[in-house]
Amino acid sequence: MTAFSQPTRAHSFNAAAAQYAANRPSYPPALFDAIEDLAGRPLQGARVADIGAGTGIATALLASRGADVVAVEPGAGMAVEFRRANPGLPIVRGNGNELPLATASADLLTYAQAWHWTKPARSVPEALRVLRPGGALALWWNTTDLDVPWLAAQAGRLERHFGIKREIDRTGNGATNALADPTGRLDFTRRQVRWSRPVTIDTHLANIGSHSMFLVQSEERRAAILGDERDHLLASFPDGLVEEAYVVELLVATNS
Q1: pLDDT band, residue 168 (cuts 50/70/90)
Q2: Around 71, how many Cα atoms within 13 Å sit in the side-chain half-sphere?
């Protein structure tokens, strides 16, 4: 099986930005309540930089909570979709390994589904440089709730197809700390937020098809795998509707 490099997978989103924006899940209000709690300050009035902002799903929600937010996005295709969907929000090109932001300029840095595309040996010092004293770094991922049988079965099929695991580590806070910051400079507090959304099978397939493990495959292989998934899902959900269940894995560390 072909192994695709991290840069190849990261750049794959640019050609599928519209699909990503239309079908990826959002985030529940409880996530932002948890961020405020762990960061020790409200989002209202906070200077926030959303790094690896993609099409702006998280950026728009941060702005709706009253944050003064700027997006940072490396991908040209994603940036175009961001500007189309969020014409009133500022965006600059850049990435977490070399932030185009002034020193001590942010109260909060957020990475929604994006920290794993960085190199922590570079992104950790950059985050600490940009954060004000007492500022916070928040990382989160929408992970599939594998306690739900149909989602666990699907994850198993996809793992067999691709030979990779889709989910981040859930073995405990110590292991998560090491994955998020192997440099050991940050002390993360972990919180989980569960939520779900009802969608059609078509939307669900477009959602999973917008993940990099699909996007780097040939069109023929993508179609074959998604067609197989459609058959499995219709056998269990003949009405064409499913309930996607998520556990948001949130990590927050302060710049003390």
Answers
A1: very low
A2: 30
DSSP state string for 196-211:
EEEEEHHHHHHHHHTS
Question: Does residue 215 fall inside a structural domain?
Answer: no
Q: Is residue 151 part of a domain?
A: no
> What pLDDT does residue 7 have?
58
Query: 10 Å Cβ neighbour count for 158?
Result: 20
pLDDT at 165 over 90: no
74-133 pLDDT tens trace: 999 999 999 999 999 999 999 999 999 999 999 999 999 999 889 999 999 999 999 999
Give the range of the structural domain holding residue 11, as residue numbers without chain letter: 6-144+167-195+246-254
At residue 163, the 3 state secondary structure works out as coil
Residue 240: inside a domain, yes or no?
no
| Measured distance CA(241)–CA(251) in Å, rounded | 32
Into how many domains does the chain fold? 1
Kindly compute the dihedral angle of the four CA atoms of residues 166, 147, 193, 58, in this order, to the nearest 10 degrees: 30
Q: Do 244 and 142 touch, CB atoms closer than 8 A?
A: no
pTM: 0.89
Instruction: Evaluate whether residue 91 is within a structural domain.
Output: yes
Query: How many whole angstroms separate alpha carbon 142 and alpha carbon 113?
Result: 7
Residue 220 CB burial class (10 angstroms; 0-12, 13-18, ≥19): exposed
Using the predicted structure, report yes or no on whether residue 10 has a pLDDT greater than 60. Answer: no
CATH of the domain at 107: 3.40.50.150
Cβ of 33: how many Cβ atoms within 10 Å? 14
